[in-house]
Design brief:
12-stranded mixed sheet; alpha+beta
């Protein structure tokens, strides 16, 4: 009887262990902060992290600068994004898997000023990069873009 219970527990552990390990796997880093001036932060879920040079960025992070702040980030594919004062932008989607041919970048600009210089995603898949704003979606086909979004 005890051996049957132990065997069942072993089976349950074998089935559950991969799910636990998968749930604990860290989210992939999509980029990093290269430069920060003034007040700036990274909102990750409910956590607000002061932005600092070298800080890793994850998909769905929201980058924010205050009235005296600015920030420059570089994504894993070499894309460079700069934020001016009073700016909020979310890295909504980032996929850079050249071996599998999977590319996508979606930035959601809520307010402020954003400058963009394309990286490998735009080079390999020109239609895969977008900036979404409250007033429309910009599909990027070129290499550089600047957007200034005032208060709505």
């Amino acid at each position: 009887m005890i051996f049957a219970v132990i065997e069942r527990m072993k089976l349950i552990l074998l089935l559950v262990a991969p799910l636990v390990l998968q749930a604990q796997a860290p989210a992939p880093v999509v980029g990093s902060v290269k430069i920060v001036h003034g007040a700036a932060s990274i909102q990750r879920g409910s956590q607000v992290i002061p932005a600092a040079e070298g800080a890793h960025l994850l998909a769905h992070d929201s980058l924010r600068t205050a009235a005296d702040g600015s920030m420059g980030v570089i994504l894993q594919d070499g894309t460079r994004v700069s934020l001016g004062p009073n700016t909020t932008v979310e890295i909504d989607r980032f996929t850079y898997e050249p071996v599998d041919g999977k590319f996508s970048l979606l930035l959601r600009l809520s307010r402020g000023v954003l400058a963009y210089i394309s990286g490998k995603i735009a080079q390999f898949s020109p239609g895969a990069v977008q900036v979404e704003t409250p007033v429309g979606i910009v599909g990027l086909r070129g290499t550089e873009l600047a957007i200034s979004l005032g208060a709505l």
